[in-house]
Design a protein that fits this description.
By secondary structure, the protein is mainly beta. It has two helices and twelve strands; from the N terminus they run αββββββαββββββ. An eight-stranded antiparallel beta barrel has the order 1-4-5-7-9-10-11-12. β4 and β5 (65-73) form a beta hairpin.
Length: 189
């Protein structure tokens, strides 16, 4: 009977161990600022950012997987020029009245060795959802001494064609390809 009890205990620990390995993180909106780059009629590369971001990231580093859900408040677009921000939130571009957010959801994180290298998922903009893969250029987890919590951070990049989502104002002069540069920091729940 003792052997049966030990076996059941070991089995319970073995089944529970993978569930314990997954860690959930909440995105820190003060240190997560997605930036976009777009060609401005051949003259220059214009940049802007989104100031309001929320989301959750789940990492299971032992199983080398995870998931991600990020929501961006499109009205928080910040080009550095107030009049341009007004135009960007209009129906010509982000159409904030109809589509107040854009989002990225992924149920998989691809690891290379011990570090995440890419996140294939679904990106939704203007009510249109398309596949998008974020490439992770850097990744770091450690205890954040200032916040007194464990945290992870990453820099990721991806490129979309805005016309794929129905955003075609000023094409082809204003670039169709938009580079997304995403710095993210998140605290362990």
């Amino acid at each position: 009977m003792k052997k049966t009890h030990v076996f059941v205990t070991l089995l319970a620990v073995a089944v529970a161990a993978p569930a314990l390995a997954a860690e959930t993180y909440t995105i820190d909106p003060n240190h997560t600022l997605p930036v976009y780059e777009i060609n401005h009629f051949g003259w220059s590369t214009q940049r802007g950012r989104f100031n309001k971001v929320s989301g959750k990231i789940t990492l299971d580093r032992s199983a080398k997987t995870g998931s991600m859900q990020v929501t961006i408040d499109v009205a928080s677009v910040d080009s550095g020029v107030a009049k341009l921000d007004e135009h960007l939130t209009s129906e010509d571009f982000f159409d904030v009245a109809k589509h107040p957010t854009m989002s990225f959801k992924a149920d998989k994180i691809v690891f290379e060795g011990d570090k995440p290298k890419s996140v294939p998922g679904q990106f939704t903009l203007l009510g249109v959802t398309k596949p998008l893969t974020l490439t992770i250029n850097s990744f770091h987890c450690a205890h954040n001494a200032f916040a007194k919590k464990d945290a992870c951070g990453a820099d990721a990049v991806a490129t979309i064609k805005r016309s794929d989502f129905g955003m075609d104002t000023y094409l082809p002069g204003l670039g169709d390809e938009v580079k997304l540069l995403i710095n993210v920091e998140a605290f362990k729940d």
